[in-house]
Specification:
Blueprint (H helix, E strand, L loop, with lengths): L1 E6 L4 H9 L6 E7 L9 H4 L10 H4 L3 E2 L9 E4 L3 H13 L3 E4 L15 H4 L5 H9 L4 E4 L5 H8 L7 E10 L11 H4 L10 H12 L2 E3 L2 E3 L4 E8 L6 E9 L5 H10 L17 E4 L7 H4 L8 E8 L5 E7 L3 H17 L11 H5 L1
Parallel strand pairs: 1-2, 1-4, 2-3, 4-5, 5-6, 7-10, 12-13
Antiparallel strand pairs: 7-11, 8-9, 11-14, 13-14
Helix pairs in contact: 1-12, 7-9
Length: about 350
């Protein structure tokens, strides 16, 4: 088993890390760290547990460490605020750790990949550029924005048709704002049509994720994205309504076939957190729905529905992903698995993939 440290462990995403790692076949939570007010307390005492499953007993009695502690765990999962991640995450990579981050601070850096391994596992090779340019002995990789996930997963099988323009309208769950999140007086009986910084992320990140690795850089997808992001009174699950214009418009049946036949990147297919089906199409007239579909594939699948012709662009559809599982903690765990599987922890003496599967 490989020891893992969780940074920002008492927050909503940090708790998801703890929950998802309880029975992980490769990783075990060995260290937890949080802000100063929690340091020195048992995790069970410092953490206001929000999830419906019990807090794992193996983590409950761990003592919360400061964020600048000298961690012994080779793998670090970060749920830090971006302003803290900005300096701390590169410092940890410099010290040799494999850092898999959920923060936005470094996503758009030229030598830091935004990994959705089922789509772009080969982008992990940017780590070699990172190590050469920055002198890291460790690594820093990032998870995308949670709203980007259903957009990128739905579009990846359609790139062969020449994606040119994409219009996204999001309906984002309140858990995406962390805890305690949006005040109840603001969100009950209401929709908030503005989420700070969100639209810019949804317009930029898919182009990098769906781009091609060429030498030492990612060549972004040559498509135009426009996003309108909204907070809605749903607990978990981000829904996106997407319209797409293609250079070579396919039929609706061809699109369905592309989704149904899509296979994850070869480097990702045996990672333990990858679901059996990364993409599901639901023919129901009123699907996907957050309450009914967010937990598909243990929360790691994207569900798509309502494919139809668009009177402005070419086609439109609805897609849904679980924002704190696939769009946050589960995604960062999957990225850490990819780092280990591709041998980026050999300098730390981490076991081979073959040994981990044994």
């Amino acid at each position: 088993m490989i020891d893992v440290a969780i940074l920002g462990a008492t927050g909503a995403v940090g708790q998801r890390f703890v929950q998802l790692l309880e029975h992980h076949p490769w990783f075990r939570v060995a260290e937890v760290a949080a802000s100063e007010r929690s340091v020195g307390r048992a995790y069970a005492e410092a953490c206001h547990w929000l999830l419906p499953t019990p807090m794992p007993s193996s983590v409950a009695q761990l003592t919360v460490q400061p964020l600048d502690a000298d961690f012994h765990s080779p793998v670090i999962l970060s749920a830090l605020p971006s302003e803290v991640a900005q300096s701390l995450e590169p410092a940890l990579a410099q010290r040799g750790h494999l850092v898999s981050s959920n923060a936005s601070a470094h996503r758009m850096a030229d030598d830091v990949p935004i990994l959705l391994p089922e789509l772009n596992a080969d982008h992990v090779q940017l780590v070699e550029v990172q190590r050469r340019k920055r002198g890291f002995s460790g690594t820093l990789v990032t998870m995308s924005n949670c709203t980007t996930v259903p957009v990128a997963v739905a579009l990846a099988p359609l790139l062969t048709f020449g994606v040119q323009q994409v219009q996204v309208v999001s309906l984002q769950a309140i858990s995406g704002s962390g805890y305690p999140g949006v005040p109840s007086f603001d969100i009950f009986d209401n929709i908030l049509p503005y989420i700070n910084g969100e639209e810019e992320k949804v317009e930029r990140e898919p182009r990098k994720i769906l781009g091609k690795l060429s030498g030492d850089q990612i060549m972004p997808l040559e498509a135009t994205f426009s996003a309108s992001c909204n907070r809605v009174p749903v607990l978990d699950g981000h829904t996106v309504v997407v319209s797409v214009k293609f250079a070579n418009p396919p039929s609706l049946e061809t699109i369905r076939q592309a989704w149904q036949s899509f296979q994850p990147h070869a480097w990702a297919r045996h990672l333990p957190s990858l679901p059996d089906s990364i993409l599901l199409y639901n023919d129901g007239l009123d699907r996907p729905q957050p309450r009914l579909d967010r937990d598909n594939g243990r929360g790691m699948a994207t569900t798509i529905g309502r494919l139809r012709a668009c009177n402005v662009l070419d086609v439109k559809f609805v897609a849904l992903s679980h924002n704190t599982v696939r769009g946050a903690a589960g995604g960062a765990i999957l990225n850490a698995e990819l780092l280990v599987a591709q041998g980026y922890g050999q300098h730390l003496g981490l076991p081979s993939v073959q040994h981990l599967h044994a």
